[in-house]
Amino acid sequence: PEPATLEAAVRFDHITVERGGISILDGVSASVPKGSCTAIIGPNGAGKTTLLMALLGEISYQGTIHLGNQGNSPRIGYVPQRLSFDRGMPLTVCEFLAMGFQHRPLWFGINSALQQRSQEALALVKAEHLLERRIGALSGGELQRVLLALALLQQPDLLVLDEPSAGVDFRGELIFCELLDTLRHSQGFTQLMVSHD
After folding, report:
1. Cα torsion for 188, 192, 195, 197, to the nearest 10°?
2. Assessment of whether the complete model's pTM goes beyond 0.90
């Protein structure tokens, strides 16, 4: 089909973001076709992450962002560029994945159904062997896979990735991109990714 006839998962209409009187984005309009893998590419400082933060509702902006169709808000999974945390924390990957979903404190143990879901999400990203590893002991590539597994636990309609291969070597980046392509086809989400490459 022609691009104009494709259903949009996200539509940005005249998005403008200013900070401290400086224009970061000025009237940006774009469309992300449903089911696509769409990349926002540009040099550092071009406003790519700012556009994602506007999409996620993390910063104020002018303009309109349309999500989904007929007012149905899509579930969004997000993989950040980097995660700042205390690497000395005695937290396993399984506990990290459970934190956002379990209502009782982690020291009471992890619900077995949630542990199973976490294991399945890690298997999707070929990282099931990391389940009991300490989160602070992971390499950059391993941490990115865990963050992707966490995003997949949201069962996203829209997967948003902010330079997901930052801090990963070239081979790891290639494997990560191939994995994303396979997952997009098997899981059926729309992928929106920022990259400076």
Report:
1. 60
2. no
